[in-house]
Amino acid sequence: MDGCDTSPVPPPLDRADSRAWCAVAVARLSHDQPEAALEAARQAIGRDPQDEWGHRLAGAALERLGRDTEAVAAAREAVRLAPGSWAARLRLASALRRIPGRWREAWAEARRAVRFAPDEPDPHVLCGDLALLRGDHDGAARAYGAALRRRRDHPAAWVNLGLTLLRWQRPRDHHDPAWEADPRDTGRARRALETWSRQVRVILAVATAGICAAVVLPGLSLLAGTHRQLPGMHGEARIGGALALAAVLVVCVRQAARVGAWAYVPGMLRRDLRLGMSVALGLLTPAAYVAGLATLPEPRPDSLQEVGGVWAGATGLVLLNPAAAFAVRLLAETWRGRPVAALRRFAAALPVPSGPGAADRDRTAAADRAATRDIAVAFWIVAARAWQAAAALMLVPNAAGAPLAAVACLAVPAGLLRVRTTGAPRPHDRWLAAALAAPAVAALCAACAGAARALTGPDPAVVALWRCAWGALALGAAAFAVRATRAWWRGGPGPWRASLVPSESCGTWIPGDLTPSAGLSEEVRHAAAYSRNVVLACTGADGPRALAVSAVTSVTPAGEFRLIAGDEAWDAVRRDPRVVLFVGDPRFWAEVRGVAVPDDDVLRVTPRQVLMREYPGRHQARTR
After folding, report:
1. Cα–Cα distance between 129 and 506 in angstroms, integer?
2. What are the backbone dihedrals phi and psi of residue 446, each rounded to the nearest 5 degrees, phi first?
3. So what CATH class is 18-167?
4. Any transmembrane segments, and where (predicted)?
């Protein structure tokens, strides 16, 4: 955990107490000491193998150590010991999501955790994280909203909700984690498709350049009226163009054999914008090349004037498609999502400072590294939008011949002022400051130049203002280039979408999958095992019901009740697993709130909260 105390956590005073060892494991995980936490969890398991809390903590420590397979095994053992524990289900779902091809199982466990404990925020957050991994931004936003309704200060919910507004995609967005395919197989397919597209476009671009040289240069010599004419190579150009198509066919056959996961290619193209554009250009470029080859003009003196539009367009597409693809991808990356609204969510994840200097929110930025990093990237997206909008609005007056249209550039600084209302602290980055100021200055200069041109006509001051406007835009582009180069050189996060990261922080409280299980006192165990006055309260088809329990077969060392009940209780549990057991005793009565799970011929009830109360007349209560 970022910014936490890393001082060693000592072992418990009572080394024979398994739950004391579990508390030490939680403290060590909170202090970012996973190896020491794993040792404490194993000490707890050795003293009480039936307590699922120790297995959960071992799974959490193993996950932080990167031992995902062992973490899943530990979490499964916790679920086996307490199938009605929402925390155990949450731990298992969290471990499974890191295993390739296990997304569906992780989703099922996370939904069970929500069903068992709908009042807890962490299961909803995990459901949102799993939906976010698939690119289901609307579903993720609903899950994060449900978590925030239960706990308004959950930082991970706020940060990841902001990512849904930015339409964040994980780095390997071509792969759907719900697919049963290995990500390595789809990764190989993606590389093969990109290599195929790149090789096809390069081959055809080189061939097109050679054809243009063979056709255009003789036309230029004839058009110039030189005495020495270059020999025309129209026929040779067609033959060479056909050979280039043969080379393209060889590339297609070779790369098609490397794809392998053809069944997943359509889904990959839908999920990955860059891959889809690359494949589309790989198909469109040969078609344009064939069209250009079929309409190849003859080298005549007037050939430059009579070049057909089909040939010119096809040649331009073959030669210039990389630049066009880059421009389209840049626009799509810049204008996707709502960065201003996302900044508000990121700011809500930061703790509110208190005490002296509370107005300086920047000092709280280290509380959540994911939030501060995403805030910086969102600011860069805003700067890129402002730059592109200013450039587009500055071109309008010249293209339309209406100087007063430059006044529309004032929308750029007005839009930048909205960012100040988000409450997000601006990072201490001088290059970002320059990138934000550049479009505002350029827009103001352009608006003044347009107004002055409309009022006074041509004037040297107007020209100077326009030069200042374009110079400011150039400085903004230079600031972005310097910041990007610096990030590339240092290997740190850069001013682009790929630097956005989700958060897993739970703030200052214990994460849900580390919370202790409910313990049972010996009094409650004895009363449940020997009392004939046990009532099960559950939700029936027509509302709450109180049903008599036929027998309590056992109370496990972990505190789990095993009951024999009628069919009505089974139907109610399938409808809503949350139940309450009332256990009577001559001295007191106990209220056990928990989750019931059918298992063969018994109902297994895992306690969440245990209340012990004395009978009326002695108004005292004890809560465990």
Report:
1. 13
2. -65, -40
3. mainly alpha
4. 200-225, 237-254, 275-296, 308-328, 375-396, 402-419, 431-452, 464-482
